[in-house]
From TrEMBL:
<dbReference type="GO" id="GO:0010043">
    <property type="term" value="P:response to zinc ion"/>
</dbReference>
<keyword id="KW-1133">Transmembrane helix</keyword>
<dbReference type="GO" id="GO:0055085">
    <property type="term" value="P:transmembrane transport"/>
</dbReference>
<keyword id="KW-0812">Transmembrane</keyword>
<dbReference type="InterPro" id="IPR037294">
    <property type="entry name" value="ABC_BtuC-like"/>
</dbReference>
<feature type="transmembrane region" description="Helical">
    <location>
        <begin position="85"/>
        <end position="101"/>
    </location>
</feature>
<dbReference type="Pfam" id="PF00950">
    <property type="entry name" value="ABC-3"/>
</dbReference>
<feature type="transmembrane region" description="Helical">
    <location>
        <begin position="20"/>
        <end position="46"/>
    </location>
</feature>
<dbReference type="GO" id="GO:0043190">
    <property type="term" value="C:ATP-binding cassette (ABC) transporter complex"/>
</dbReference>
<dbReference type="InterPro" id="IPR001626">
    <property type="entry name" value="ABC_TroCD"/>
</dbReference>
<protein>
    <submittedName>
        <fullName>Metal ABC transporter permease</fullName>
    </submittedName>
</protein>
<comment type="similarity">
    <text>Belongs to the ABC-3 integral membrane protein family.</text>
</comment>
<keyword id="KW-0472">Membrane</keyword>
<feature type="transmembrane region" description="Helical">
    <location>
        <begin position="58"/>
        <end position="79"/>
    </location>
</feature>
<keyword id="KW-0813">Transport</keyword>
Length: 103
């Protein structure tokens, strides 16, 4: 009798994730640009890499992303600066601040 392989749902979940990820990234790049999408993916991950041993790294990375976006949008609106560049700068500053605070 045929049995359902235990690894099959995990395989479909992974493939579905990568398919959705590819579609979202493609549309995001078309909407906001490669610079902002790349910075949003890379800067928070690099900032918490190797620094969050006592807790999962996803939560601090998410917090850095939210902080960088909120500060970048606020400063952009306040000083009439380009929003994408402001977000990238504040993501970088938040990541640098996190790295320096964790030393």
């Amino acid at each position: 009798m045929w049995q359902f392989p235990h690894w099959l749902p995990r395989l479909f979940a992974r493939r579905t994730f990568y398919l959705v990820f590819a579609v979202v990234i493609t549309f995001s790049v078309q909407i906001v640009g490669v610079y902002l999408v790349f910075a949003s993916l890379v800067i928070p991950a690099l900032a918490v890499m190797g620094k969050a041993q006592e807790q999962p790294a996803l939560l601090p990375a998410f917090g850095l992303g939210v902080l960088g976006y909120a500060a970048g949008i606020a400063v952009s609106a306040w000083l009439d600066l380009p929003t994408g560049a402001s977000i990238v700068w504040f993501l970088a500053l938040a990541g640098l601040g996190y790295r320096l605070a964790k030393k």
